[in-house]
Each structure stands twice: as structure tokens, then as C-alpha cells.
């Protein structure tokens, strides 16, 4: 079995391509942009801005031989420029749709290495899926998020709290219609959580096609001792790390912080801020805003904290949960993301939109200073199930199961 992986950007750090390469099944990786080797190509990125250039230069996977990678460097520069241009005009989803269509069309016309399975990511695979189906190739679509369900959920929340980030954008029907057409074409739809599966089914996805495949994760070396250490003196250190926006439930964290303003708890909020300055200024004094931080500093933040919080309204998976668990931090989150927290064992699951539930969970750690350290070994152990190797093995099992199902169906048709 040989598999082509197609993706825009370094999605999930090339997890699918890396995992399949380790399994000896990767036929090739097709992506829009791959970190250039020439100085001229690197300098040309400056026109896109420092942040975009840094992201593009980081789009590389040294585990995969360059000879197995096909990219579109010149066209990618045009696509990235167009995204920036349309986004500045308030047409971000139009930009994504145009770029996704252009990329998928380019991939469909490529002279790809021999393969019998195609693995692509949602929104950027429609034209390639159609071409691969005609070639008789088994098609696998990775639905990267909960789709239209998530958009509507967040839009409703923004309507309820316009003071946080203004009113929502109009519903991008073209963007999500494209996803539904991809679901129809794909032989297999892979999602990374039960929450995403429920969302796809709610929008018309075929349940028989949908497989849950949690993301792969590499914990790396652990600087903190794995033994039971006494909790540091002082306030309970609560960490938020990731995008600071309505979708992630930042306003529910702020409400919990207000209710706990007289308790020995300090909240650290790290990540790019996507709410209005007025909302930040109105936050209680027990909240510290750290802003965007480099990945190199994230480990220290985890190790200086006691509990990780993610009161999200919707996340396909939220890999920060695994990062926190790997550092021995119990996680407080909602059911609307990857369900990796075992309630009462590696953290707590709380209902969405209920700051009082978040308060009660945090008070359990505050009232019992030993609770977080007692959970720490189980947190680290839980992460082991989400290795890249396990991800690859599970992906191959899913593909193999559907290949056999397809063969059995074709055989039955042939013999009447």
C-alpha cells in the first residue's frame, strides 16, 4: 500500500506524512510551500511580512527525504500574497476558498508517484479527490475541524457578547459547501475527536464513512521530575496557552477569575489576543496577560504552572491538552474538543458556557494542595497513547479496513 499525502502548510507538523513514512507507506508528500534551500527564495518571502515568512521557512520536515516532496513555491507566493490582500479587505474566507481551489487543482494535475491511496485535508482537496476517484484510488479526507457547526456556535456567542470582539462575519456558505462536496467524494472521512464526528454528521456527513483518529504528539524530553513534588508555595498557578478568543472561551475564564478574585489563584494568559483591548483592560487583577510567546518558552510556562484551563466552545482536538498533560498538568476543559481528559483522574470535564463549573473545579485544586501533584503521573502516562507511531498504526488500520470493505463490495457486485 502506497499513500500520497496532500496538505497546505505544515499542518500538524506533517504528522500524517511522517507517520506513514515511518510505516514505509508514504509514496510522496505534496504541499503548497516547502522551506526553500536557495537564498533568493528565502529573501523573496520578505514581501509577505516577517510572521508569514517565518512560518513559511519553518515548513519543512527533515524526517522525509526532499526527493519525496513536491511543492509549488512560485504559485504559493502568489497565493499567500492574495490571502493577505483579501484578508485586509475583510474577505478572509474568500481568500481561503480561492487558495484551496487553486492548490487542489494544481495537485490534481501533478504527475504523482504510483499510489493506491490518497490522503488530503479538508477544504483543500475537492478537485484532487475528484481526479483520484476517476483513477480508482481510495480517497481519505482529514476533516480538520468541526466545520459549520463550530462557525455557528462561535457566531452565536459573538452575538451574545459583542463587547468582546464585535459581531461575527457573515456565514461563509461557499467555504462549507466545499467541505460537504469533499465528504461526498471521499471514501473515508477522518476526524480527530468525537466532537468533530458529531459536527460532521449534523451537517450531513455519512456516519459510515467517519473514523475517529486522535492527533499524534511527541512529548520530547521532560525537564520536570516525574516524581511527586510538593506544590510551590504561593497562589495556585493557572495557565491558558493558545489563541485568546471567543471560540476558546476566554470570557468564561475571565468571569471565573472575577469570581475568584479574593482567592489565592493567579491566571496566566499566553497567546495572541483576539479580543478587544477594552475587554483586556476590564479583566480582574489576578489575570496576567503574557501575549504571544515563542514555542521555546512554552515548556517553562507549563512547568511554572499547576493547572491548565481550556473552557473551549469548540476545538477539533486542542493539542495543548496533550502538551499540558505531558508536563504533568491536570487539564480543565469541556466535552467540545478531543476527549482525552479522564474526569477526576487527569483533570476535570466541565460544561460549556458555565464559569461557575470552572470556579468549582479550580477550587478543588486550591482546597486540596496535593491534588495536582497526585494527578501528575497519570497525566504523563495518558500522553503515551498519542504517539506519532500509534497515530500511524491507527491510520493504516483505518485505511486497510476500508480498502477491504471496498474490495468485498466490488467483488460482490462482480458476481451479482
List strands and helices in order, with pairings.
Layout: E1 3-7, H1 15-22, E2 26-31, H2 39-44, H3 50-57, E3 69-70, H4 73-88, H5 92-108, E4 117-121, H6 126-134, E5 138-142, H7 148-160, H8 162-165, H9 173-185, E6 188-191, H10 194-202, E7 210-212, E8 236-241, H11 250-259, E9 265-270, H12 277-281, E10 287-291, H13 295-303, E11 307-310, H14 320-326, E12 331-333, E13 347-349, H15 355-367, H16 371-383, H17 388-414
Helix pairs in contact: 1-17, 4-5, 5-6, 6-9, 11-15, 14-16
Task: Record keyword descriptors for this entry.
416 residues; alpha/beta; Rossmann fold; 7-stranded parallel beta sheet; 6-stranded parallel beta sheet; 17 helices; 13 strands; 45% helix; globular; disordered C terminus
Describe the structure.
Helices cover 45% and strands 14% of the residues. Helix 6 links the parallel strand 4 and strand 5. The C terminus is likely disordered. By secondary structure, it is α/β, with parallel strands linked by helices. The protein folds into 2 domains: 242 residues, Rossmann fold (3-Layer(aba) Sandwich); 151 residues, 3-Layer(aba) Sandwich (Rossmann fold), CATH 3.40.50.2000.
Amino acid at each position: 500500500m502506497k499513500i500520497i499525502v496532500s496538505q497546505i502548510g505544515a499542518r500538524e507538523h506533517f504528522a500524517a506524512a511522517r507517520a506513514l513514512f515511518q510505516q514505509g507507506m508514504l509514496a510522496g508528500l505534496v504541499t503548497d510551500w516547502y522551506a526553500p534551500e536557495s537564498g533568493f527564495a528565502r529573501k523573496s518571502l520578505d514581501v509577505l511580512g516577517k510572521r508569514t515568512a517565518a512560518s513559511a521557512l519553518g515548513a519543512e520536515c527533515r524526517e522525509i527525504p526532499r526527493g519525496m516532496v513536491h511543492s509549488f513555491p512560485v504559485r504559493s507566493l502568489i497565493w499567500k500574497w492574495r490571502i493577505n490582500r483579501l484578508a485586509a479587505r475583510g474577505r478572509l474566507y474568500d481568500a481561503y476558498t480561492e487558495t484551496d481551489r487553486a492548490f487542489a487543482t494544481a495537485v490534481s494535475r501533478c504527475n504523482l508517484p504510483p499510489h493506491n491511496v490518497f490522503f488530503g485535508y479538508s477544504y483543500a482537496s475537492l478537485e484532487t479527490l475528484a481526479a483520484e476517484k476517476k483513477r480508482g484510488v481510495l480517497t481519505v479526507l482529514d476533516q480538520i475541524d468541526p466545520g459549520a457547526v463550530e462557525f455557528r456556535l462561535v457566531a452565536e456567542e459573538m452575538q451574545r457578547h459583542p463587547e468582546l470582539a464585535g459581531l461575527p462575519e457573515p456565514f461563509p456558505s461557499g467555504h462549507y459547501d466545499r467541505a460537504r462536496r469533499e465528504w461526498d467524494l471521499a471514501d473515508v472521512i477522518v476526524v480527530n475527536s468525537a466532537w468533530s464526528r458529531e459536527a460532521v454528521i449534523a451537517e450531513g456527513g455519512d456516519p459510515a464513512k467517519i473514523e475517529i483518529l486522535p492527533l499524534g504528539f511527541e512529548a520530547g524530553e521532560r525537564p520536570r521530575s516525574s516524581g511527586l513534588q510538593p506544590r510551590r508555595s504561593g497562589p495556585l498557578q493557572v495557565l491558558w496557552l493558545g489563541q485568546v478568543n471567543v471560540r476558546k472561551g476566554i470570557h468564561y475564564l475571565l468571569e471565573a477569575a472575577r469570581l475568584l478574585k479574593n482567592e489565592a489563584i493567579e491566571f496566566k494568559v499566553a497567546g495572541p489576543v483576539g479580543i478587544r483591548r477594552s475587554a483586556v483592560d476590564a479583566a480582574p487583577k489576578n489575570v496576567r496577560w503574557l501575549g504571544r510567546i515563542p514555542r521555546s518558552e512554552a515548556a517553562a510556562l507549563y512547568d511554572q504552572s499547576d493547572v491548565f484551563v481550556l473552557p473551549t466552545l469548540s476545538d477539533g482536538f486542542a493539542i495543548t491538552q496533550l502538551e499540558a498533560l505531558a508536563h504533568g498538568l491536570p487539564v480543565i476543559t469541556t466535552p467540545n474538543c478531543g476527549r482525552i481528559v479522564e474526569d477526576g483522574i487527569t483533570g476535570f470535564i466541565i460544561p460549556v458556557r458555565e464559569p461557575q463549573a470552572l470556579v468549582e473545579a479550580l477550587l478543588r485544586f486550591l482546597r486540596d494542595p496535593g491534588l495536582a501533584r497526585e494527578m501528575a503521573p497519570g497525566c504523563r502516562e495518558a500522553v503515551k497513547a498519542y504517539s506519532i507511531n500509534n497515530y500511524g498504526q491507527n491510520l493504516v488500520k483505518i485505511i486497510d479496513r476500508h480498502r477491504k470493505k471496498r474490495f468485498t463490495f466490488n467483488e460482490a457486485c462482480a458476481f451479482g
